[in-house]
Specification:
14 strands; Rossmann fold; six-stranded mixed beta sheet; 25% strand; 316 residues; alpha/beta; binds adenosine-5'-diphosphate; disordered C terminus; binds magnesium ion
Length: 316
């Protein structure tokens, strides 16, 4: 991947909090215009990773390059990054309008954009009321509006859809799409796998501070050992008639590795003249559980997670 096309590049990034390995040799690259879904169990290291990219946490090991600048060497010029932290809290006495104007002033953005975002996020009716009267969802919408105020080149959203109703979540992803079309790279940490699946370009699944998987849905599927399921009506009779199908017949359906789907479908349609089947590929949730469940099983069996081997720089 050429550097000018690469919004974020992490090479062997590791970070410890005391004895705890929060990140271990994480490598990943995101291109301009891509949406990366950052997935993982609670404590997997997602928020820490976002803070490393922001420069809020200096990792003990590894290289971080953001929008063409190495964080290791220090930033030469300010980077246009939008960030929504997890569990955002605001100064309660400000109104929504005042809060966004405050962030706008910090980012050198005019009030016209503040007003437009308040309108787009459906907060007009509450904009002059103090934030202490805002619901969780309203605060979250305000938090997202502040993150995109400056039309960032890189947008980092830490669990942005928590507290949002379905329409607001849908609106958020539409908004993200308009930003990615302009070349903004977006990283979204989330547990809402079904919501993010149709939106993502690439996903990174993290577990215990490590990268467990990275790639587009097609790439994740290709590397998965989960079966593709093909549902054929009246399957028992058809399996008896076309013996070859027996090899794939389990639990009332046909199951095959992803690599064999094409040849099995060809056999069904040409040899068996069967067209009334439904193919079910593993979704993001299944791919996620395939990676995370073995970790959970290992820790419930008392297998300790290996601590980081790199030296820890005290006070770094
Ligand atoms: N400031 C901190 N001090 C000590 N431990 C921390 C700190 N921040 C995070 N951790 C620990 O690092 C691990 C990763 O945390 P985090 O990145 O917040 O995970 P996630 O966002 O995936 O839930 C967790 O075990 C968490 O308890
Ligand atoms: Mg987190």
């Amino acid at each position: 991947m050429s550097n000018e096309n690469c919004a974020v590049s992490l090479a062997n990034v590791s970070h410890q909090f005391g004895d705890l390995a929060a990140l271990t040799e994480v490598n990943c690259q995101i291109k301009a215009g891509q949406l990366l879904a950052l997935l993982g169990h609670n404590g997997a290291g997602k928020s820490t990773l976002l803070k490393v990219i922001l420069g809020l946490i200096k990792p003990h090991h590894g290289q971080v390059t953001v929008l063409g600048q190495s964080l290791h060497l220090g930033r030469k010029q300010p980077l246009n990054i939008g960030y929504l932290p997890e569990n955002i809290t605001f100064y309660d006495k400000l109104t929504g309008y005042e809060l966004l104007c405050y962030f706008a002033a910090l980012k050198g953005v005019g009030k016209v954009r503040v007003k437009r975002l308040i309108e787009e996020f459906g907060l007009e009716y509450a904009q002059h009321k103090p934030l202490k009267g805002y619901s969780k969802g309203m605060k979250q919408r305000l938090g997202i509006a502040q993150a995109i105020l400056s039309e960032p080149q890189l947008l980092l959203l830490d669990e942005p859809t928590v507290g949002l109703d379905p329409q607001a979540s849908e609106f958020l992803y539409q908004k993200i799409r308009t930003l990615t079309e302009l070349g903004c790279a977006v990283m979204v940490s989330t547990h809402e796998l079904n919501l993010i699946e149709p939106q993502l370009d690439v996903a990174m699944i993290m577990g215990q501070g490590r990268k467990l998987a990275f790639g587009s849905m097609a790439q994740l599927l290709q590397r998965s050992s989960l079966p593709v399921i093909i549902k054929v009506p009246d399957i028992v009779r058809r399996v008896t008639r076309y013996g070859y199908l027996a090899e794939f017949y389990h639990d009332g359906v046909l199951q095959c590795p992803i690599s064999q789907t094409e040849s099995l479908v060809e056999y069904l349609t040409t040899e068996c003249q069967i067209f009334d089947f439904v193919i079910e590929k593993p979704g993001l949730a299944a791919l996620y559980h395939e990676k995370i469940t073995p970790l959970q099983q290992a820790s419930s069996e008392g297998i300790a997670f290996q601590p980081l081997q790199h030296p820890v720089l005290v006070g770094a």
